[in-house]
Amino acid sequence: MDIIQCAAVFDIRLDLVSLTHLKRLSVLQDLSTSELIQRIGAAGDAGAYRDLFLRYHDRLVAFAGHITHNRFTAEEVVSDVFLRLWINRGKLEQIANPNLYLYIAVRNAALNARDKERRHAHLPEAHSEALAAGSASDPEQLLLGREAGGRIEAIVNRLPAQCQLILRLVKEEGLRYKEVAALLGLSVKTVETQISIALRRIDRQLQPAGQTSLN
């Protein structure tokens, strides 16, 4: 099934009524995200693609909205990410962590959209570039904001995937622990623990050789 046929079966820009109807019709909701990705990548399964969209749409739009501060732009960002995901479905089996991939892809697209809107609003070029700091062309990587140093960036990039994502959502996007927990389907306690692990590791690795952290 090509992208035109897929769009006919499943319009990415569905209204809420259609989304509710599709949720009732879904027969693949018990599959894990990894299993849905496998079906999409291996067989071009439009049903699995639909279910993946329904599973992530609302939370990804909410996530993008924290960056764009514009519901319409957030909707467009998520739609575009899913459209590219379908077009590049042959490469999906290379994704080790689909959940992380989707959030990073949406984050990068949202940052790009925000930067474009602010450039159109005639912000000074230097300020626009600063606002875009952290956007990455590779959705497997995230960059820290403009105030982060190279050493901290390197340390954060070496954190486990989930730990890294949680830290960035809290420290870069300014989300509360409760919001991150809801976005990622985790408990607040897990978010707190991951933040603590990340900060201890950063603190420890920033200490000069032979010096012990006070924490």
TrEMBL record:
Family annotation (Gene3D superfamilies): 1.10.1740.10, Winged helix-like DNA-binding domain superfamily/Winged helix DNA-binding domain
Domain called RNA polymerase sigma-70 region: residue spans: 52-119
GO MF, one example: DNA binding
One Pfam family of this chain: Sigma70_r4_2
Presence of the UniProt keyword Metal-binding in the record: no
Keywords of this entry: Sigma factor, Transcription, Transcription regulation
The organism's place on the tree of life at top rank: Bacteria
Alphabetical GO biological process terms: DNA-templated transcription initiation
Domain RNA polymerase sigma factor 70 region 4 type, chain residue ranges per copy: 151-201
Regions that span the bilayer: none
Family, per entry: Belongs to the sigma-70 factor family. ECF subfamily.
Protein name: RNA polymerase sigma-70 factor
Organism: Flaviaesturariibacter aridisoli
Lineage start: Bacteria, Pseudomonadati, Bacteroidota, Chitinophagia, Chitinophagales
